[in-house]
Each structure stands twice: as structure tokens, then as C-alpha cells.
Amino acid sequence: KACVTSARNEVIMSHRQTPVLYIVIPCYNEQEVLPITAPLFLQKINDLAAAGKISPDSRGLFVNDGSKDNTLDEIKKLRKTDKTVNYLSFSRNFGKEAAMHAGLEHSKESDAVIIIDCDLQQPPSLIPEMIKYYEEGYKIVYTKGRTRKGEPKLRTFFANWFYKIYNRHTEMPLDNGAKDFQLLDRQVVEAFLAIKDNYRFVKGIFSWVGYPRKYIEFDFIPRIRGKSTWSFKSLLR
Ligand code: UDP
Ligand code: MG
Q1: pLDDT, tens only, 196-236
Q2: From CA 173, how far away is CA 204, in angstroms rounded?
Q3: Are 41 and 25 in contact (CB under 8 A)?
Q4: Test site for ligand 1: of 34, 114, 119, 218, most ligand atoms within 8 A of the Cβ
Q5: Which end of the chain has fewer surrounding CB within 10 Å, N or C?
Q6: 185 vs 155: CA distance, rounded Å
Q7: What pLDDT band is residue 14 in, cutting at 50, 70 and 90?
Q8: Average pLDDT, the chain
Q9: Ligand 1 neighbours by CB, cut-off 6 Å
Q10: C-alpha dihedral sign at 136, 83, 143, 98
Q11: Which residue has the higher pLDDT, 232 or 122?
């Protein structure tokens, strides 16, 4: 049901001047990174709102995934000076998939959501292009790595192995190298939320729900600071 275009949604959209955009940013132990990167995300929101591309009601939604460092304090500091900052905080670390899910659940006020990592491995400079495609009518604008050059070799090996198995056994193949960094229209978010699975593979669900989609490619960017929490065990799970 949720996958069927809602006439009501379209009426609401056509009466609205500019879309309300929420940028969902999952954060786990990112105290070194956040003070540098968060202002860049917030600046993007302010610039796009000033240019009349998105509504001034747009927000950055930070999800603190049970960090053990001062990530939450850094988010609270941001909130004090910038009212476009919203945040959620988990009682413990539940993992990035859960953080993205919670972010989407708490983006009800938005017309579109962008999910982005907070370590600048996914360039916020692509956001205006994502919005351009959204204006053209694409409901999902996702991103993928042009190559895996620069990524740890072991990770590339297991990632290729994963996509091979996944695509052999599922009806909706995934692009090898697709990122969680993507723009999602409200209809797509509602379709995602209508699925009640507890353990989710976010990328897989967004590929499964359908809708017109477009992708943008970018080259591998190393982490700005801090370290990746990538572990073989969690990716295998
Ligand atoms: N992250 C999270 N929960 C976790 C692990 C990571 O919310 O349990 C966030 C992290 O703060 C970052 C994003 O997910 O914004 C990607 O994590 P990371 O950079 O460690 O992974 P990689 O880029 O190596 O895949
Ligand atoms: Mg990263």
C-alpha cells in the first residue's frame, strides 16, 4: 500500500513553495570529526534555504548512536547556536542501520531526507545536484563510488563477495559500491517505514521499494579524522 503514489501527498507538494529537507547524520564516537564537519552540513542547509531551493524549516538531524566519547556534548553545543540542529541520542550503540532508521522515523516534517556520514567520506558538495534531480521528479537520488581505489583491500574483497551473493539471491540487484548517502522523497521514506523488520539492511530496502531513481558517482575520499568503526564481524552480520 505504502508503495502506491499518494494523491494526497502530491496535492500537498504542489501547494508548497519549497521542500522541507532533513539531513540525517548518524554519529558514533565522532567527537574529533563533528566540530569540523557539522558546520559544513548546516552551512549547506542555510545556503540552499537562502537560495530558495529548500524551505527555511529544513533541519540537520544528528543521531548519536550511543557514543562513548563527547559526541553528544558536541551536538548539544551546535544546537545552542544553530536552531536548524535537531538530534536524537541512543542509550547504547545500536549500529548505523538503526541510527538511519531512527533518523528517518523522526523526519516526519520533511518532504525529502538526505542521509550522510559525518566524516566527509561522502561529499556534501553533491547535495545541490541531488536536489536538482529531486526537482526533476526522481524519488531516490543515491550515490556510489566510481571505483574502490583507496579503500582497504580486504574490505574491497569482502564487499565484492557480498554483492555477488546478494545479487544472485535477490530479485532487486544492488549496485556494487552504492552508498547510504542518498536523497529520499517522503513517499519512499513512508514505504521504508511501513516495513516493520527489526534488523534492517537500509540500502536493500530502498532498492526493493521501487520508485524512479538516479545515481551520482564520486571517487573514494579518506576519512577526515578519527577512525572507521568498520569491522568484519558487523559487516558480516
Ligand atoms: N556510525 C554509527 N554507528 C556505528 C558505526 C558508525 O552511527 O555503530 C556512523 C559513523 O559515525 C559515520 C558512519 O556511520 O557517520 C559511517 O561509519 P564509519 O566511517 O566508521 O564507516 P566506513 O566509512 O568505514 O564505512
Ligand atoms: Mg567513514
Answers
A1: 988 888 888 998 898 999 999 999 998 888 888 877 787 77
A2: 9
A3: yes
A4: 119
A5: N
A6: 31
A7: very low
A8: 91
A9: 26-28, 30, 65, 93, 95-96, 99, 117-119, 121, 228-230
A10: negative
A11: 122
